[in-house]
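User: Could you write out the 3D structure of this protein bound to flavin-adenine dinucleotide? I've included everything you need below.
Assistant: Certainly. Input first, then the structure.
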Amino acid sequence: ELRAPPEKIAIIGAGIGGTSAAYYLRQKFGKDVKIDVFERGEVGGRLATVTVRGQEYEAGGSVIHPLNLHMKRFVKDLGLSTVQSSGGLLGVYNGETLVFEESSWFIMNMIKLIWHYGFQSLRMHMWVEDILDKFMRIYRYQSHDYAFSSVERLLHSLGGDEFLGMLNRTLLETLQKAGFSEKFLDEIVAPVMRVNYGQSMNINGFVGAVSMSCADSGLWAVQGGNKLVCSGLLRASRSNLIAGSVLYIEEKTRTKHTGNPAKMYEVIYQSGPETRSDFYDIVLVATPLNRKMSNITFLNFDPPIEEFHQYYQHIVTTLIKGQLNSTLFSSRALDKFDLSTILTTDNSDLFINSIGIVSSVTENDSPQPLGDRGYVWKIFSQEILTKEQILKLFLSYDYAVKQPWLAYPHYRPPEKCPSIILHDRLYYLNGIECAASAMEMSAIAAHNAALLAYHRWNGHTDMIDQEDLYEKLKTEL
Ligand SMILES: Cc1cc2nc3c(=O)[nH]c(=O)nc-3n(C[C@H](O)[C@H](O)[C@H](O)COP(=O)(O)OP(=O)(O)OC[C@H]3O[C@@H](n4cnc5c(N)ncnc54)[C@H](O)[C@@H]3O)c2cc1C
Ligand SMILES: CC(C)=CCC/C(C)=C/CC/C(C)=C/CSC[C@H](N)C(=O)O
């Protein structure tokens, strides 16, 4: 038995979370519901490009894993094209020397890895694969329309106590317990955490595994820029984009056009110089809730909605077209230096987390140098680079563009994820970032919130928080 669909739904935030929520809500609630998406900045949010000498480069979320099935589906449904993320050779610098350097010969690489670290890179690959295998169960659950009322229940359904327990231990503890050596952790794992999450191995084990999965082959991106997925989803869901900053959300009783009173949410927002408001049956918040990032106040809720204080890691992306000062990293001159990405170990004297050559969002093959002044390099650092620091890294450069971010949560296990259900029909998507922040995680949270909102609207409690789903669905084949 289905109740009449809601009349109006509001989504706050037009990043990948908000726009994929619009897409899934349209699928579930049908064509008649009016969906408004509020965005105070650019559509795409943390998926954004910057322009260097007329070409666009990803400055935020850039790579997508081959097993990120929601992202894959969006690209297919929206008729977008993909580009493979260029590989290139990678080195690891410890502040004095390159402690590891890839070779262009596959066999040589294997020998080097075994020589330095025994079979630990193979064991690491197997550790990540086992977690990914369990993680993939979410697609099965969601394709059968099952929803979860908390991030913890969602993770528990994927692999039980052990899987959920990854949130409560640091990656370092987990991998030390699994017998990985200090050398492998310092020279391989820590540099991967620094390039991806700008943090040490003290992040939780789950986000550590997500980060390590970036070492898999087949990473890809959307041709023209990953943010095209967001604008495409907005269009495909026939949502109404409202350019404005949401200030307050308040629950109020309204008389509907049927003459009946109903509890609704008033969304009060600033659009240009004006403060406006509108009423909604359901609201989804698709932005991190904290003062610095969204500054939304919940008014007159009983019981009150808690304040969120999740601290987000400050990261700066700098794109520079120039000639690398390769002698900073090795004694070889530039023409003999064949590394295209340099990661760094956890050394507080280093002022960069990583540096690597990047392709523009339209280049389909290996990155090309722009004219005679070198490639475009992407640098991740904790602080904005000074001119002196840039001049240490480059022999010469002719353009630099800097983009600071409050990028992802500062992970500090044990993690307690914020609630998904903030109030009766008020949902929060970005709590999932406390497990791991990635485009696919926001898409999973969006699909889950759309299913949860739909089942709760229709009273389908049997579709929420089902135990032993994996076993149940196995026998349903
Ligand atoms: C530098 C960097 C590199 C990354 N690299 C990768 C990567 O390679 N692969 C990957 O998968 N992930 C990556 N990520 C993570 C990924 O980008 C994010 O997890 C994802 O984009 C988050 O999407 P979201 O929609 O949940 O949030 P956001 O993209 O932050 O969207 C929230 C939106 O809400 C809007 N908003 C906020 N407050 C209000 C308000 N009061 N009123 C109206 N609108 C509001 C914001 O303007 C924003 O557009 C990276 C992130 C960064 C910063
Ligand atoms: C959710 C799962 C199973 C996999 C996602 C893996 C993935 C693509 C994680 C992204 C991690 C992240 C935040 C990377 C930031 S930096 C990316 C890249 N190295 C760059 O240079 O831009």
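The mean pLDDT is 95.
User: Perfect, thank you.
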